[in-house]
Amino acid sequence: MIPATRPPVADRPPEARGRARDQVRLLVSTDADDRHAEFRDLPDLLAPGDLLVVNDSATLAAALPAEAALGPFRLHLSTRYAPCLWLAEPRWSVERPGPLPLAAGEGIHVGRRERIRARIVAPHPQLPRLTFVATERPLDPTLAADGEPIRYRYLARPQPLDAYQTVFARTPGSAEMPSAARPFSAATVTALRAAGIELASLTLHTGVSSLEAGDAPVLYAEPFRVERATADAIARTRARGGRVIAVGTTVVRALETAFRDGAVRPSRGFTRRFVRPGQVHGAADGMITGFHEAASTHQALLAAVVGPEVVHRAYRTALATGYLWHEFGDSHLLLRRHGSSLA
Amino acid sequence: MSADRMPSSPAPRAVVTGASRGHGLALARFLAGAGYEVVVTARDSAALALARAEIAAVGRVSAVPGDVGDPAHRAALVERVGDRLDLLVHNASELGPSPLPALATADAAAFRAVLETNLVAPLALTQALLPALRRAGGLIAAVSSDAAQGAYPGWGLYGASKAALELLARTLAAEIGDVATVIVDPGDMRTPMHQLAFPGEDIGDRPLPEVTLPFWAWLIGQSRTAVTGGRFEAQADDWTLPVDTVAS
User: Fold this and answer.
1) Is A341 helix (H, G, I), strand (E, B) or coil?
2) pLDDT digit string (tens) for A288-327?
3) pLDDT at B142 over 80
4) Is residue B36 annotated as a catalytic residue, yes or no?
5) Engineered SS bond to A271: which of A77, A149, B187, B238, CB 3.0-4.6 Å?
């Protein structure tokens, strides 16, 4: 789907490259063409009456030191199922993924300054590198004392947790930053509102992505919540002929999951919905996202929203013109032709 | 009320019927690992003893062999459970004759046996354990099947029993406020019972029963008032609740 060229990767945030968050490049892709802009131009690229739906999930310092009979290891928390029941990824280190030889029923300790007893429960049935872990008490003190943001090899150096929070971050719970909204600044938000563009939020807590080479992309359930105020804002936008722009794949998945009987409904739960062409309600008319691996799930979702032709052409353009990949990289606005529907 | 009580506070307690193999065993083992004291029951005492040993490797478990249709066995379960019960899973199921019979020639005695195990016994066990469930603000999960809703040829006896079980569960949810009741459709799985439904066929394309564990992990973490009366498909792409009924 994507040429075999290795894309340029953002190995640090734009602030460390001498630019503000909202000064990353923005590729604007419609069925007509691809145009080059800067993220802070966003208010001029949308129309009054459009609605941006953002994810207000805040990023956890989800990488924790842990210890078992086999020695020290790292535990990347992925998803909280209950106050003391997590899905997590045991790793040898940042560089070395699992699996680790941990047996169901085995006792471990999580944290260093705040050590909490825990137990391996069972591997995730579809993704055995992830395991359920039951803890003796909630992990919040350990997260505060010992946690670091989850990071991967392509980063030049560790970044503080603040670098992983978007301006909309309000509800802690994501293992990895919902990064599509990272380029938004307070000034961008003010300019958007002044331009008559509405904003609404929902919550979807991302799990660990960490697709290592050779992993088949597997979707597993993540918690989401769509409040009535957001469902109402979407209905109002539709009624006035505005567009609903999802900021991030997380938002598209939450909206598609919450879509019932022709509209987005207030709802909450866990979703692992694979949004792909032919399997989409059309809850979003466009989206803002970053540039990510050719993982079939990511590109399939983009294709479901704006059509595969736009996505193919946009990725060729992005590679040819040096857009930066990954969570600290450049941004991409994809818009479906107004009034068209792929649903 | 869920896995938020590990050793420091009293462990939550669960009863799983039909726990000697297949889905019941996978679920009981998961609950034990997640910190529940699990009471398992099944008719085949030898198989149940093996299951108990397997579960004991990950957590606390006790086994009470017997037939849930037998009042003496129910009394033994009540005795073993004690004063509080957080989770009751009606997992034991009788498929009926194998190969599955068409209704035109289905045997009345076989139908009665299916109804006894899938419908009459779960209600009797619910009644027996209700005081303990009430004290814990517990959750009853009735394991059902898509055969309760689809009119699949051959599945009439079993499907009718599960459709009626679902109605019992929804009625319990409507009648009882302090104990939650949900219906769980685990979906197709590679289990001994599924093999009985398709004798001689290769069911290796069905997932192992552990496929339902993320769902159960989610369910035990939900507030009882949010889920009661609901019907959930464990293998669905989402488990969704309306927001307006939920205190956040």
Assistant:
1) coil
2) 999 987 666 888 899 999 999 999 999 999 999 999 998 9
3) yes
4) no
5) B238
Amino acid (1-letter code) at residue B183: I
Which residues pair with residue A111 across a beta bridge? none
Asked whether B229 and B241 are in contact (CB, 8 A), the reply is no
Q: How far apart are CA A129 and CA A91, in angstroms?
A: 9
Q: Compute the radius of gyration of chain A from its Cα atoms.
A: 20
DSSP chain B: --TT--TTSPPPEEEEESTTSHHHHHHHHHHHHTT-EEEEE-S-HHHHHHHHHHHHTTS-EEE--S-TTSHHHHHHHHHHHTT--SEEEE------SSSPPPGGG--HHHHHHHHIIIIIHHHHHHHHHHHHHHHHT-EEEEE--GGGTS--TT-HHHHHHHHHHHHHHHHHHHH-SSSEEEEEE--S---HHHHHHSTTS--TTSPPGGGGHHHHHHHHTS-HHHHTT-EEETTSSEEEEESTT---
- Verify whether the Cβ–Cβ distance B34 to A272 is below 8 Å: no
Over residues A40-51, the pLDDT tens digits come to 999 999 999 999
Provide the shortest C-alpha distance from residue A271 to chain B (in Å): 4
**How close is the nearest chain A Cα to the Cα of B226, in Å?**
10
pTM recorded for the entire structure: 0.93
A183 token code pair? 């380029």
Best to test chain A binding among B238, B241, B246 (most A CBs inside 10 Å): B238
Query: Residue holding tokens 């709802």?
Result: A267
- ipTM for the complex shown: 0.92
Which tokens in the block code for residue A43?
Answer: 């208010």
Residue closest to A202 by CA, chosen among A175, A234, A176, A177: A234
Q: pLDDT, tens digit, for every residue of A134-147?
A: 999 999 999 999 99
Which of A81, A105, A272 is closest, CB to CB, to B59?
A: A105
Residues 6 or more apart whose Cβ sits within 8 Å of residue A213: none
> How buried is B201 (Cβ within 10 angstroms: 0-12 exposed, 13-18 middle, 19+ buried)?
exposed
Task: Give B232's contacts (C-beta < 8 A, 6+ positions apart).
Answer: B182, B183, B184, B185, B215, B219, B239
Look up tokens 């062409």; give the residue: A277
Phi, psi (rounded to 5 degrees) for B77 = -65, -45
Q: Judging by beta carbons within 10 Å of its beta carbon (0-12, 13-18, 19+), is residue A48 exposed, middle or buried?
A: exposed
Strand order in the sheet with A222-226: A34-38, A25-29, A331-335, A286-290, A244-247, A51-55, A198-204, A222-226, A267-271, B238-242
Angstrom distance (rounded) from CA A137 to CA B236 = 30
Paired tokens of B62: 């006790």
A264 within 8 A of A323, measured Cβ to Cβ: no
Residue among A333, A276, A268 at smallest CA distance from A303: A276
Choose the catalytic residue: B158, B215, B216, B232: B158
Question: In the Cβ-directed half-sphere of A322, how many Cα atoms lie within 13 Å?
Answer: 1
How far does chain A reach from its first CA to its final CA, in angstroms? 22
